[in-house]
Amino acid sequence: MASVPSLASTLHQRIADALSAALPEAGAADPLLRRSDRADFQANGMLALAKKLKGNPRELAGKVVEGLPTGDLIEEIEVSGPGFLNITVSDRAITGTLAARAADDRLGVPFKEHPGATVIDWAQPNVAKEMHVGHLRNTVIGNSVVRLLEFTGEKVISRHHIGDWGTQFGMLIQYLIEHPHELDHKDGTSGEEAMSNLNRLYKASRALFDSDEEFKTRARRRVVDLQAGDAETIALWQRFVDESKIYFYSVFDKLDVEIRDEDIVGESGYNDMLAETCRMLEESGVAVRSEGALCVFFDDVKGPEGNPVPLIVQKSDGGFGYAATDLSAIRDRVFNLKADTLLYVVDTRQSLHFKMVFETARRAGWLTDDVEAVQLGFGTVLGKDGKPFKTREGETVRLVDLLDEAIERAAAVVREKARDLTEEEIADRAAQVGIGAVKYADLSTSAARDYKFDLDQMVSLNGDTSVYLQYAFARIQSILRKAGTAGPVAHPELALAPAERALGLHLDQFAATVAEAAGEYAPHKLAGYLYQLASLYTSFYDQCQVLSEENPAEVVENRLFLCDLTARTLHQGMALLGIRTPERL
Ligand code: ARG
Questions:
Q1: Residue 1 pLDDT class (50, 70, 90 cuts)
Q2: What number does the ligand 1 atom closest to the CA of 134 have?
Q3: From ligand 1's centre to the CA of 537, what distance in Å?
Q4: At the N or C end, where does the chain have fewer CB atoms within 10 A?
Q5: For the chain, what is the domain count?
């Protein structure tokens, strides 16, 4: 189905037309239409325009009003103050546009006119290392942005740039050669077991590396074998990667995030390109040798003493680092995957790295004007004390522990609310509520900002939380079940109560909100919209009886229609954030 223009956008267009008819010399002028407390909308654009063209704003506003077509949309329009327009739309128009949205599976959200291809780099943990709270954000934000972009029709390719390469593997592999059964296990190892195996191996090999000079030498030689692609060494390295994946998948599963194996292309995936990347940079003069290392310099990147800080593409010992891999990945993503947008969901603490990498790729001609590269940088998760989140012992918090605690808290909330649920049902819902709470807290502030991880607040039933939204959804489902034979039917001929109008006008903004959130990679705008939707629904529910015997049948149907559309909008919106909406809570 074709997209459904919102009342706001239709109104905007009509006023803009009337404005250019009234004042042709103004060209295409913006009427600056906003929602308003006094009427439904206010248009302020006449003021600045009249001022600029030395006219009288009230007079201009009057002309605009005369030039507007009469019809179904506008109920009332008046010139007010120095030259604003206050506009009230008709109840019929509100219900009519909502009926058109309801008739569409996509709730009237259009596909982008010119969808492109985005490669998005997200959910990138490191092999043989525990996932910590920092990996929460790149997973949760990335997942939501993928869902938003796909919903607008963009072609999206995910890349999980996991840290699966580096000198630490020499030590691990050498240890495994000397203790060959340390990673053996039966099928069906849990993620938890896999991680504890890896941790044990890591600690044991580290201890040996630090205390035994001969082991250290063997481990270093092993790094050389690994880099040379020696088959036996690679096979052992692969076992570490596989063991880690068992663990990663268990965490992603707990987070209710789907990751596809073919999208996991870690640092090692670019090994074959590294030497060529360096050669191209050196030949084109983009990179130069400095004290043996291959470096790229920038006028505006300086250290504390004013000395230039280069991007090191190849170290003086010949080793390739993080930057060489990222530059090679850009070549792959642009030339093989044919991306026109490269998006990186990575901690803002890596912003300098990406700035230098992007700039280098531009100088090398790998990023052209047709390709946009964006780091969607996110801030730090803080503890209640406002410092980076740590355990009481001052250690980094394991992501699994944090998720388990959220689920446990959620179970208490669910248990308290619904007394007739089985233990299994409680566990199911606790997972949906607990994980939803963690995701929502992350997604409801703009990514770039730090936020406090506060479970008490996150699972609170009142306030800007996912539980509040999930309850609003479940409550509507219960009303729809109770309605029996009465169903949701739109009746545009009915007059609407103020709370119905407010809810309806907000529902009408869903498509515009999704477009904005997707276009700006800003899930928090969608979260804010949904919270307001649930609040407006709560006021509607308080002020307008839905299933009252005293209501005429059409009023019941029309209110059920508003309930149903609200539920569908909540469900779709939450799905775009990666959050479940249980039918019952
Ligand atoms: N593995 C890295 C980390 O844990 C994040 C990788 C980000 N992506 C990239 N293309 N550099 O910090």
A1: low
A2: 4
A3: 41
A4: N
A5: 3
